[in-house]
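Batch manifest, entry 17 of 40.
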Amino acid sequence: MRALVGTALSAILVLPAAAQPRPDQLKFREIYKELVETNTTLSAGSCTLAAQRMGARLKAAGFAESDLHYFAVPENPKEGGLVAILSGSEPAAKAVLLLAHIDVVEAKRQDWTRDPFKLIEEGGYFYGRGTADMKAQAAVWVDMLIRFRQEGFKLRRTLKLALTCGEETSYAFNGARWLAKNRRELIDAGIALNEGGGGRLDASGKRLILNIQAGEKFPQNYRLEVTNPGGHSSRPTPNNAIYRLAFGLNRISAYQFPVKTTDATRAFFATMGSQAGGKMGAAMTTFAKNPTDELAAETIATDPGFNAMLHTTCIPTLLDAGHANNALPQRASANINCRIFPGTSVEQVRLKLAQLVADPQIKVTTLEKRSEVPKAPPPLTPEVMEPVKAAAAKIWPGLPIAPVMLAGATDGAFLNPAGIPTYGLSGMFGDPDGGGVHGLNERIRVRSLYEGRDFLTEVVKAYANQK
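Output type: structure tokens
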């Protein structure tokens, strides 16, 4: 036994030590930790508190009170945010806006392996709610402004930081929307950098591709509802509201919306195909050349993330039915969350859902729209792309870069219609399984976070001094 223990200890001692964080990374981690450990869920948290804590750090770094603009509305006192301004040398030059939402999806401690509101480093990952989505980038922006101020970095264009709340909820107060409508002058900019464009790793952790997001699908909720006279549960009838709703949902589950493409998705699959290799890579390459190839599309669709880039998707997310355990249900309803591909209207999707359920007793209603339906995505001009390419070449030589259409939804949906071109860019590479974002045990690789921070610093410096 002692011999075995000694052998095991020797094996441990010869393992390479993990890279020690640089001093600047340790300072950044303090900001990151404070953000992650400030609960900002809609149910029990406070974005206002998180914004105040970040503002206090900026003030301690030398920002004047006049450069820190807190905002909130009386009806939603815990859903406030912050705009911070670092002035450039040429006030007439269009500013660069650094956007980040600081609210997070709900997380129940009893479901998680670790406390979701404690930053835990384990096995090369940071764990916690918001570690990836998107307090990582929010912390990077705060840390960046602090470093630029303390280092005396000379910038031509003004940098603006907007920390907002409400991105993770469909109908709550949204700080980005409020700023665009009520305080546009605070966030007015020639370009905005946001979440939505990271990098993808393979199962072994190899970097495959770096993405910049321009354009996104449109999120829309619909309600399916069946009403019924009900009655005593001892007198069941086939005309049961829950049965009818279930049959309708089953029909929706069997349907797949038609495959569509954009310039961004074709470019993404063309680039990703050469990196992915194997059957999936071959399918992507084929699909990029011929989007009508059904077999290639079917292969791509086996990956949930890639499938979401192929077409409109609709999925039930909430159910509500019945009023007593000994009564026939008088009402049964479901929320259907759709992510609509550009070029398809909200009403077209509603009509298709009604056609699919094929039951006049199932009422299909369009719920409140989160934002305006997007038009054309902002263009990926040389002025936008060159700083990205230069920074990527410096940190990851030879890594391919491709545009991507985001399958999810971001606060760019409020800024682009307001005339502020908004791009998703983080330089943070995620695991193929999604890293638990919006789910259990959310995580991001420590290496990915620190590299993304260095990448964004290079990009923002270039934008800030761009002619």
